Amino acid sequence: MGRPIIEEPVRKTLISPSAAWSQFLTVALTAASALFLAVVFYLPSASPLAWLALAPWLYSLKISSFRQALGLSLLWGLVFHGLVNGWIVPTVQRLGPYTETPQSPMLFWAVVAFLTVICYQSLYAVLFALLVRALLRHGKGFLLAAGISAAWMLTEWLRCLGPFGYPWCLLASSQVNCLVILQWLSVIGPFALGGLLVTMNALIVECLIDRTVKPLMVAMALLVLLLIGGWLQLQRSQQAERRAPRMSVAAVQGGFGMERWLGDVSEAFLQEVLKEHLTLSTKAAEKGAHLIVWSETAVPVIITPTNIASPFFKELFQFLVRYKVFLIAGAPTQENGLSYNAALGLWAEKGRVGELVAYRKVRLVPFGEYVPFSDRWSWLADWIPHQEPQTTPGKEVVPLSVGEEGRRVTVPVLICFESLFPQHLRQMFVKKVADDEPTLVAIITNDDWYRKGLAPYHHARVAILRAVESQRAVVRAAGTGISLIVSPMGKVLAEAPMGSRQVLVQSVPVLSGRSLYYRLGDFPFVVLAVLVIGLCLMPRHYRAVALNWMREIVREHWRRGGNYNVRAC
User: Fold this and answer.
1) Spatial contact of 518 and 469, defined as CB atoms under 8 Å apart
2) Who contacts 288 (Cβ-Cβ below 8 Å, separation ≥6)?
């Protein structure tokens, strides 16, 4: 007999080659998805990429296990938010001299701030993945795409809520370079528009998974409808602008940054800051500007009830009396021992300066302008570096009403961080003063803290979104740039680049009324998103019953010409 054949024992591996390749593929697709979407915010001309960028991530979620899907979503959040928030590290480190903290410890806190932000924002990506995984188990086809769209809209809306709300780089803001698509903001708002972008991505994934062109055809039809609807809305906005009365406005970019808040700044330098703003404002007034906007904290001294009449402001008051213009100027104020970041409304009437009005910033930057919960846990203020005194939030979200009866402009003012929140500006339109319609919107900011990188550019582009949503012209005054004047349909009429010292003067249309989005708000769309997700998660039998019930309601609504009765269905 021959030698017995001895078989080598089979080596068991935890991951087979095919499984390892599959895991590598999903990780690569997820990271590529986050990278592609981040590119859109750095290069607005690549805005069409946002309609496709999420598809690789959604595909990875569909072919992965539940545990893998959570890990992939965390990876997507860390990569995307890390790329678009990289400016946080140098910005926080630059605060060292103002918090009296040495450079090395401040670098540590800058890294901590960066990691905290991206980890916190990544939790919303994980929440989105949990909803998507639940929808994949129950939903299918076009209803599944609608459910994924609703899940994205819901998570973006949640990102704006609470004291730590941070709506940085919302998906809708990727379309600032496409005015046709952007017009939908005045109808459905940024969260619902972001959901529609995700619908396109979800339909592309359905096409890849099912290997059928039907979802792709639906996606193309949806895109065509959005383009046609946006174009019609754009034509309507252009006609409204041509018929509207006009007003000449100015944005003053003084070119002074954060250096004026150092403790050793001389009074001569502060007087130079004020004088330069007055020089630029004089040029604007001589060009016919009726409303002039200065940047955040452009007034270089803290305003108190006692020093407003000091000789320091003599030239400012003389300017107002001579040119009879309306002035909105950012200034730090103190009252009853509390410090505020405010926007002042100044004007002259009957040869003297009118009553001083102020809007105090309500939405403050956590750990930047104040330390959250330091009133309860005082050790936080001792532990975390910050500038004293801490800023106190304002109590009322109302626009500034500048001028006397018969000669008044009502201007909602957003101070820096507040311009990121769409619902904040809408609240000012709801709580208008004395039934006066807002004339236009002013955004004041000091983006010198950012210096370079994505932050000052994306922060400036947000003004375009607020203009289209509100259907009002926006005047954005930034201390060192980027200052803008934007038309109600989102067209940039004038721009001052970073690092320049200049004044923008432009005639803008003054529209009235409120956009559909401002009349409805986010609540109906949030409710609809919850209903769509609930419908997708229903067992198939109950879902069919619910769809039939809703179909009958729509038919009855159509038959009765809009006056339907739920009981009749």
Assistant:
1) yes
2) 248, 505
- Residues 27-44: tens digit of each pLDDT: 999 999 999 999 999 998
Question: Hey, is 403 helix, strand or coil?
Answer: strand
CB atoms closer than 10 angstroms to residue 415 = 25
Nearest to 532 by CA among 146, 132, 131: 146
What backbone phi and psi angles, to 5 degrees, belong to 508?
-125, 150
Question: Which two structure tokens, joined as six digits, stand for 422?
Answer: 């769409």
Contacts 24+ apart (CB under 8 A), 427-433: 427/397, 428/397, 428/398, 428/399, 429/470, 429/514, 429/518, 430/518, 431/396, 431/397, 431/398, 431/399, 432/398, 432/399, 433/398, 433/399, 433/401
- Tokens 């007055």: give the residue: 278
3-state secondary structure of 343: strand
Q: Strand 338-346 vs strand 357-360: parallel, antiparallel, or unpaired?
A: antiparallel
Q: Whole-model pTM above 0.85?
A: yes
Instruction: Give the mean pLDDT of 565-569.
Output: 35
Give pLDDT tens digits for 482-501: 999 999 999 999 999 988 89
Cα end-to-end span (Å), the chain: 87
8 Å CB contact between 330 and 297: yes
Q: Helix axis angle, 185-210 relative to 214-243, nearest 10°?
A: 170
Looking at per-residue confidence, does 448 or 99 come out higher? 448
